[in-house]
Amino acid sequence: MSLEHAILVSLAEKSASGYDLARRFDASIGHFWKASHQQIYKVLGRMEGDSWVSSQLVAQEGRPDKKVYVITCAGRDELAAWTSKSTPVEPLRSEFAVKLRALPFGDADAIVDDVRVRRRAHQTQLTYYEDSAARFYPRPDELASDELGGWLVLRGGILAEQTGIAWCEEILQRLTASDGAER
Amino acid sequence: MSLEHAILVSLAEKSASGYDLARRFDASIGHFWKASHQQIYKVLGRMEGDSWVSSQLVAQEGRPDKKVYVITCAGRDELAAWTSKSTPVEPLRSEFAVKLRALPFGDADAIVDDVRVRRRAHQTQLTYYEDSAARFYPRPDELASDELGGWLVLRGGILAEQTGIAWCEEILQRLTASDGAER
DNA sequence: TAGGCATATGCAACTGGTTGCACAGCATCG
DNA sequence: CGATGCTGTGCAACCAGTTGCATATGCCTA
Hints:
By secondary structure, chain A is mostly helical. Chain A contains 7 helices and 3 strands.
């Protein structure tokens, strides 16, 4: 399992409350590992039990108190140990691929529409990644060592979205060519 | 959820027992949607309750009896209805990406090894897909309509593996360049 | 001042999927 | 004759993650 480790990475970068983490998981880290706030609070509790993190209640002005979590030495050890173990290649799991196989038994027009929606979604995400790359890593050939990971992840996202677009276009070409150059 | 629909697709192509389905999910369909035999039996039971499939006990010679499942009209209706609904783009979830972000806090050498293993795995899978493509779709420009889905899925797999390899190589270039052209 | 919104934390019930185990028929090999 | 291995079906316990709800502070606006 890996949410623990994703949280450890995030806390190693910067201490945070559960709420803060939930927002990070809506953005940067969340692009490749989603987590709801409920899940995060639950796991944080378990991690504190394992002494991977410790928490401290912090009073704030104008808003509710928050519990700030800090990674412990044990947490850093765990994180280092985890990186030194190999990660199995996660098999791809695509509902969309199942749908393509269902072509002869379903509604081809609806599937084509779906592919178009999908292509747009990939395009939007790609643009977002490219903007992020330009903003946060303007000089990718001169990266600091603590920037390298983030950059490489972003590159992976960009490659994946480009591939997604290419696949959609190949599908559209196949599925609309027979109707004679549809809109 | 989609295992139901993956099973419906598989049964629409050809009736089968739970055991047969489990083997299909180790191969063709399984390349993009994994399922264990326990899971399949469980879901088949539920699907029979929903009348999406019906079963018939078939005696065999030299081996145990088997329960052959056949898709029903209701099952075909459900499948068609499912294809006409849009599928949300599934967010990518990559433990490997988390690990890349963990670079400053972990064992860079181990991560590099992991990337190499990963590249090999992608290469192996790519070769497998390309062989499948050459064997089952020798003339991709003249596909029958019931072959199109399988072909497009295979193309998606090929594109995904190529991207995986490209990403690994970019990572290796970054992570080993600083050591001065490592082995 | 009531309602909506952002901040902030959390529980309970459920679902999809994994892991581990059980059991049974029949074949083949040592 | 026993061990191993493939075929074949299934249950029980567990785990990760989702959905829905509860609760509380304090801001801003209608």
